[in-house]
Amino acid sequence: MSKSRDIRRLAVQRLRDLFSRASDWQELPDFRAGAQAVDLLVRFKLGAVDQAVILETTSLGQPRQIRAAIARLGELRRELPGAYAVAVAPYISSQSAALLKKSGLGYLDLSGNCHLSFDNVLIEKEGKPNVRPSTRPLRSLFAPRATRVVRVLLVDSQHAWRLEELAKAADVSLGHCHNVVKRLEELSWVERRDHQRIHLVKPGDLLEGWVDSYTYRLNDIEAYFSPERITRKLVGELGRVCHAEGRRYAFTLHAGAVLVASNVRFPAIHCYVEGSHEPIARSLGFRAGVGEGNVYLLAPYDEGVFYSPITKSGLPVVCLPQLYADLYHYEPRGREQATHLRREAMGY
User: Fold this and answer.
1) Of 95, 214, 271, 297, which residue is the least packed, with the fewest Cβ within 10 Å?
2) What is the dihedral of CA 74, 340, 326, 225, to 10 degrees?
3) pLDDT for 53-82, tens place per residue?
């Protein structure tokens, strides 16, 4: 049984315990409500009154995941206006609980906390500690070499991977890949199905978990001033010189977004470059800046950033998950561009 179904099963068990006097109990998994799919719809009677409860499960109950669940539950309530909407996770943090209450939603976790308020019902239990601490994300999951596995999974989120195939694609040892996949299974972000093939089932949660632990500033960044104005032509010149030097390189942040989506404007060029930056800067007449500039050459925190680049106008851009992660914490307008990229191009 998958971990996500396990969470759902245990949540229903808790719900039945809380409403032990209910009758006509029905559980409808993957219920279709218009164009939407509900994780689980539970119908029952309290006395003579019919009740319907929507359960939306998430493997993490931290604010980022809960905000996504709130948006999702809002859509489901529009399709099922008479139903009460409940977020379910192994553990709901106090901050997440406050967000759900403010939105008029219920919650239920597997540690014993809950808030259910509808019609004449009010059930509230708070302060229970997390009895499943392994569901908390670990920094080691997003350590440099581990993110190679994460990145490969996110780039091809529909692929069913053999462990050996995944390790080879990520350029990590079989043992390291096994450990990362095991951790992802504990978080219900991947499942093993037929022939033990690995399926990514929560790409959005995995992407958000990575972004929470990552900033592009993990890379060593050297700032330069270009004598030329920042244009697509200069981007092309930088690419030409990197290629002539035999270096791996890939554009990111707004320069990457410009190449992917032509309507984006960019105030500076950011480019991952393998090896020493000095010969490239000298060839283009760049002047070294002190923390500030209009061209930034990044020594990657891990060579995995070069995995599966997108070619646009003959130039390499980092893969979409890497571009999203780089943009998300970048100012100005990085998060706005990241959100647009995810909505228009990523599909999760």
Assistant:
1) 95
2) -150
3) 999 998 878 777 888 899 999 999 999 999
